[in-house]
Fold:
Amino acid sequence: MFAPSIVGTANATAAGWGNLGGGVTQVFMVLVLFEPFKSAGMSADTAWRVSMLVPAGLFLATALCIKLLCWDTPTRKRFTTADTGKKQGASMWDYVEVLKDPRVVVMIFQYSACFGTELAMNNQLATHFRTYFQMKAGDAASLASAFGGMNLFARSLGGISSDLLFAKFGFRGRIWAQFLALFFEAIFLFFFGLVDNSQPWYVALAVLIFFSLFVQMAEGTSYGIVPFMNKQQLAVVSALVGAGGNLGAVIAGFCFYKPIDDPLTPFKVHAAYVMFWALLSPCYYWPEYGGMFSGPRADAAQGEKVEEPAAAVSAA
Structure:
């Protein structure tokens, strides 16, 4: 679908604009739906429940339009497994085989450390600003929306940086882009956990913006690597990595934020989780591509060049 030289940019931009909805939702749900319903005389509980009906209706209408009006591929209205040259779809055994590759497992958890973090922040930030900094719900939602709003360009920036470093340094450039994005994500997440309510709210917002920048960039750099991991099982790898993002949100919610009562400590613990997986980036090595600290093996590089066609559909 996308040429290897721009696969990071293409995947990151498409997925980033999709994730932009996470930022828009923070404002839309509170200021456009909840507050007007509450002003109309509904109780806070009823207004919030009625607000949920609006996006539910939009989801159903959108799904119906996609089903009736959209084509699955540029050339075919409905996609079939035969379009990929395979006789049958992926089986459970294909997923097991892919998961035997430790590099895929590392990528799954690295994506849990970036996209999973984004999902966790979408759940935590508005409440954090409202309760810890004692802000009005609308103001807290507006600040929280800045995190998701960075998807307007930040995830694309991650894909672009992956493609640029790939052009300059080869495949190791993509791995370094991944490592640096996750590394600085962990650093700024930890800094965010250091901002207490004795400081102005805009200090937290400033740190949050830099933190968000590297979260979204790491998502973009992840799908700059995914298309090269296992070309024969690209769809399976893409699906597993995307699922890793959702797994990361569950891990963060149940292991960091729910059991810890302190308002700042969960952010610091979460930062350690991100840093752990960032430091496993040297695990990425393929004889035909090389790794973080070495180029491709000469005999393997002759058999397969990095510039072979590759593509991936970002799962989130």
About this structure: The radius of gyration is 21 Å. Residues 190 and 268 are 5 Å apart (CA to CA).
